[in-house]
Design goal:
InterPro entries: Inosine/uridine_hydrolase_dom (IPR001910), IUN_hydrolase (IPR052775), Ribo_hydro-like (IPR036452). The protein contains seven helices and five strands. By secondary structure, the chain is of the alpha+beta class. It is globular, with a radius of gyration of 17 Å.
């Protein structure tokens, strides 16, 4: 999980938190890995949150893992609700669903991208060559749509 293929930032106007925190590392990974990286970008996470009703029910799962998960997220849930967020989203949870079952991804885009390292407003932004202007080899396979119902089944299984 990391990056943002549409230039919509969550830490700065243009950058996602993970890439913004260490753009040099993200840059090296994208340049050196040698094959397309399956990426769950910020925008996909932002577009696939869970209703508060579903989230609260899910967090009441009375298992060791359920209680652990509930303890981890309680502080952030309180903050999100106080900020009047319409839903709960966990980027890490969505990324884990893809690791378990790649068919959660219903649409992907293969493209070339680099991390902006020097911009005063765009440092950490993943700049994607959507029109293949640069003619470079694909290095990203970005998940752009998901089967959220399939992901929920996996979320439930994670707490058992």
């Amino acid at each position: 999980m990391g990056g943002n293929v549409q230039g919509k930032g969550n830490t700065s106007p243009a950058a996602e938190f993970n890439f913004h925190s260490d753009p040099e590392a993200a840059h090296v990974v994208l340049k050196e890995i040698g094959c397309p990286i399956l990426m769950v970008p910020w925008e996909t996470c932002a577009d696939n949150g869970q209703s508060w009703t579903w989230t609260e029910k899910w967090l009441k799962t009375d298992t060791r893992k359920g209680r652990f998960q509930n303890g981890i997220v309680q502080h952030s849930i309180g903050r999100l609700k106080a900020a009047n967020r319409s839903h709960y989203r966990s980027c890490d949870l969505l990324a884990m669903a893809f690791i378990i079952d790649r068919s959660v991804a219903t649409e992907t885009e293969e493209l070339y991208g680099e991390v902006e390292m020097g911009g005063s407003m765009t440092r950490g932004q993943l700049v994607c060559d959507w029109r293949q202007v640069l003619g470079r080899k694909v290095n990203i396979k970005a998940v752009t749509a998901v089967d959220i119902d399939k992901a929920r089944v996996l979320y439930d299984a994670m707490l058992k």
